[in-house]
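Lecture 7 notes: from sequence to structure.

We start with a single chain of 140 residues. Read the sequence below before looking at the structure.
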Amino acid sequence: MKKAIFAALMMLVPTMLMAQKDSTDFKAYIYNNEYDVFMRINLYDNNIVIPGQELYGELPGFLGKRYNSFCWVITAAEVKGREATLQLINDYGSEDLTATLTRENDSIYVLRQVEGSTLKVPNKGKWQKLPKTLELKRKP
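Now the structure, written as tokens:
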């Protein structure tokens, strides 16, 4: 009996791993209209290329500002369930930070700055600090 249960569980493990790999939780375009920022991410395949900054190659994603080429580059990402830990650097390479991205439901994500530099984006010729916790919506 124990062998049969063990064999059944071993057959389910590859299926569960495939389901996790095929998930689209962290393969999305998400945005925040209040701060005019967006994230383009694919934390599974790491195949996002930043427009106009192809020099970086394929990455897990980036946080950008609409109507501006400045961005925060996601250099590494680790997904665990509905939360991902992100390592980001600004496109100058002068600042870095660690953040978490949590999928709250089908359309809401929450980006939380954990440690390191503060997320700042250009806004009308000045630097605008983003809040430590930022809600983003998934584009349908």
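Residues 4-9, 12-21 have pLDDT under 50 and may be disordered. Keep this in mind for problem set 3.
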